[in-house]
Structures are given as structure tokens and as C-alpha cells.
């Protein structure tokens, strides 16, 4: 086992001391301690791979996961030992752990997959249900088997415990005042969700705790809201349930990433992934602006090496404004290449002239979504715009 450097230890300690961190926060720490921007994504994943190879010896793992309520990616260190009490550590008492588990069970047993329960329902959680045969009809004659600490766990203790669980990110208070799972639960309970047969999202195969269920009551298909966006945002994508074929009631928000219909590939069936995005291509040195004039529909984005400005109008539609690639500054174009190279290194191989030909027709949906989020959050740089 190779030894870890102080940089690896810093990354691990940041997650252990602060708890799960948003991807942007975790990457910011990584960038500061490595001071390496030339190949940041590849170096980032190399660091994670090395860290996990060492953590595996103590049954820990540094893992990425999503908050199912807003789709935000987080990173955290998780204990892979299948022991529910070890996941909460020694801070909580046995009745508090039973209270937490009762709330989790109430949330995942909801067939509507709302991913939350009311505050009142949470406080009414019965701890005796966590004792074998403690909540059934036959348990009336064996009430003595229920620990006294469970029977004496008062409402005020439940309220304090609920506040503490929310503060520690095991639970969360949703925008409508309900109680849902916290980011630490999404991180730690992945195997527990599977062992308790929580229906998985049909797109990402993670537990569909907060998801949209199929309208067909006899169909168990669930899809996370952010996965629905990826699956149905293409104009030609059939909005039907992948399990039973029932029409899926989904309206694409205007802020979602769309591709012009004339740029979509033909022949895609209704059960295939969304059509591939338009092709972007970097122009070789020596070409003039006239080389791109009079061309057909916008299916390429050409970049001149000296100015790094584009000649075509392939667009990404953001939440509040329309971004044209020709508005992007030079450093942004390089960042786009790094996003693509993260999962598709072969698509950014330099050719004989030292230029990079970027073919995004083969990009996976994760890369396109990362690319969309990056461009959407940029402010167009008007002084680079080619008229």
C-alpha cells in the first residue's frame, strides 16, 4: 500500500471534520492544495483513487453522491461496515438511534416517493416498533420486552433529537416544512436502501427516495427529478414510462438544456438515451473566416487558434440567458475541453498540427450535463464576440 501525502490527508480531514461537502467546495479545497490547473480533473480522480485504495483497508470509502431533493453532488467519507449504530457513532443514545431509524422507515415506505413526512408524523414515531415484535398485535402481552428507555422517551426528547438530527445533517427540513433525509443519510445508507428493497431510479439505479413515480399504480418505476430532466429534455424523446409504456406527465422547463431538432440524429427509438448533442470542432491554423461562410445548419463550433473565437452559433440555453459559444473567453474554451476530457480523454487528442479536434457526438449524458451547467453559469464576454 502506497503512502499518502499531506495533500491526501488534507482532503480526507476536510471531509471528516466538516462532514459531506458540495462538489464545488471539495474541488476548491483540492485546487488550493495542489495548485495544478493544467490537468485538474484527471489529477483529481487520481487523488480519489489513491485515497480509496488506502481507506479500503479500514473499510472506509470516499464517495460522491447526490442530494435527491435538489440534485447537488456531494463528497463524503463513509463507513462500509453494515452496522446501523456504527453509522451514527457514539454521540446518539440507543433511543435516539431507534427514533431516527423509525423516521427513515416512515419516509421510504411512502409509495408516492415524496421523500419526506410531516413534522407531526416524525414526532409520533413509535420507538417500540424498532423492537422485534414490539409493534404487532401479539406484542401487547410482551410489553415488558420494550426497553424502559424507549417507553420513557418523551415528546420533548423527540423534539430535541429531531433538531439535533437536522443540525447534524442526518435529516433535513424541506422548503415546505416537512422532514426529509439529510445528506449524511444519502451518503451512509446506500447499502441499507438496497437491503430494504427501496425502489431504485430507472435512470441512475440509486434509491428513489425522493423521486417521481409512474402514474400507473401497478408499475414500480421511479425516476429522480434531475434524472427526468436528462431523460426527457430532448424534444424528440418520448415521454413514456420505461417500464410499462404509460405516458409520463412531464413538462420540460424553459431553463433546461435543449438541442435544435434539426441537429438531432435520426432513428433513435423511444427507449434509447436522448439523441446526441451537436458536433463541435476546433478550426486548424491558417483558415480564414470565409471558410465557414455559407455553411448549413449549425452543427459545429469552430475555434481559431490565435483568438479562440467561434464562427458558428451552437447554443446552450441557460436558466436566465442564452449563451453563444462565440461569447466565451479563451480560458473558458480550455475549461470546456477539460470537462469533456474528464470522462472522454480520447475525444481531445491533439492532431498533427498541435490543434485539438473536439467531437462531442459521442459524449455521454453526464459530460453533456456538466458542460451545460458550466456554460449556463457563465456570463458572456461580449468583447470577444465575432460579428
UniProtKB/TrEMBL annotation:
EC number(s) reported in the record: 2.3.2.27
MF-aspect GO terms: ubiquitin protein ligase activity; zinc ion binding
Any matching Pfam family: SMC_Nse1
UniProt enzyme class: transferase
Catalysed reactions, semicolon-separated: S-ubiquitinyl-[E2 ubiquitin-conjugating enzyme]-L-cysteine + [acceptor protein]-L-lysine = [E2 ubiquitin-conjugating enzyme]-L-cysteine + N(6)-ubiquitinyl-[acceptor protein]-L-lysine
Quaternary data: Component of the Smc5-Smc6 complex.
Official protein name in the record: Non-structural maintenance of chromosomes element 1 homolog
Amino acid at each position: 500500500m502506497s503512502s499518502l501525502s499531506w495533500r491526501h490527508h488534507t482532503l480526507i480531514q476536510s471531509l471528516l471534520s466538516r462532514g459531506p461537502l458540495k462538489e464545488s467546495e471539495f474541488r476548491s479545497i483540492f485546487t488550493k492544495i495542489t495548485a495544478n490547473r493544467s490537468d485538474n480533473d484527471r489529477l483529481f480522480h487520481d487523488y480519489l483513487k489513491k485515497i480509496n485504495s488506502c481507506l479500503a483497508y479500514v473499510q472506509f470509502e470516499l464517495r460522491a453522491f447526490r442530494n435527491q431533493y435538489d440534485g447537488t453532488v456531494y463528497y463524503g467519507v463513509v463507513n462500509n461496515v453494515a452496522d446501523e449504530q456504527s453509522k451514527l457513532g457514539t454521540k446518539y443514545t440507543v433511543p435516539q438511534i431507534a427514533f431516527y431509524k423509525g423516521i427513515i422507515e416512515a419516509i421510504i415506505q411512502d409509495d408516492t416517493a415524496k421523500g419526506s413526512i410531516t413534522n407531526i408524523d416524525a414526532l409520533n414515531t413509535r420507538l417500540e416498533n424498532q423492537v422485534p415484535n414490539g409493534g404487532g398485535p401479539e406484542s401487547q402481552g410482551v410489553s415488558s420486552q420494550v426497553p424502559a428507555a424507549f417507553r420513557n422517551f418523551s415528546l420533548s426528547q423527540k423534539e430535541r433529537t429531531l433538531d439535533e438530527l437536522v443540525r447534524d445533517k442526518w435529516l433535513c427540513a424541506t422548503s415546505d416544512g416537512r422532514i426529509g433525509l439529510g445528506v449524511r443519510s444519502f451518503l451512509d445508507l446506500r447499502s441499507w436502501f438496497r437491503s430494504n428493497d427501496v425502489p431504485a431510479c430507472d435512470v441512475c439505479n440509486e434509491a428513489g427516495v425522493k423521486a417521481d413515480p409512474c402514474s400507473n399504480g401497478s408499475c414500480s418505476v421511479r425516476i429522480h427529478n434531475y434524472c427526468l430532466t436528462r431523460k426527457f429534455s430532448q424534444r424528440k424523446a418520448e415521454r413514456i414510462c420505461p417500464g410499462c409504456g404509460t405516458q409520463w406527465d412531464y413538462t420540460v422547463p424553459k431553463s433546461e438544456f435543449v438541442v435544435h431538432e434539426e441537429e438531432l440524429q435520426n432513428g433513435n427509438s423511444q427507449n434509447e438515451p436522448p439523441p446526441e448533442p451537436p458536433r463541435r470542432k476546433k478550426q486548424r491554423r491558417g483558415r480564414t473566416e470565409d471558410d465557414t461562410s455559407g455553411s448549413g445548419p449549425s452543427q459545429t463550433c469552430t475555434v481559431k487558434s490565435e483568438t479562440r473565437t467561434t464562427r458558428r452559433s451552437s447554443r446552450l440555453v441557460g436558466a436566465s440567458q442564452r449563451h453563444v459559444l462565440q461569447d466565451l473567453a479563451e480560458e473558458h474554451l480550455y475549461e470546456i475541453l477539460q470537462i469533456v476530457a474528464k470522462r472522454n480523454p480520447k475525444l481531445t487528442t491533439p492532431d498533427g498540427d498541435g490543434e485539438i479536434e473536439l467531437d462531442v457526438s459521442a459524449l455521454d449524458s453526464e459530460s453533456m450535463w456538466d458542460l451545460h451547467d458550466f456554460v449556463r453559469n457563465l456570463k458572456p464576454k461580449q468583447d470577444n464576440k465575432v460579428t
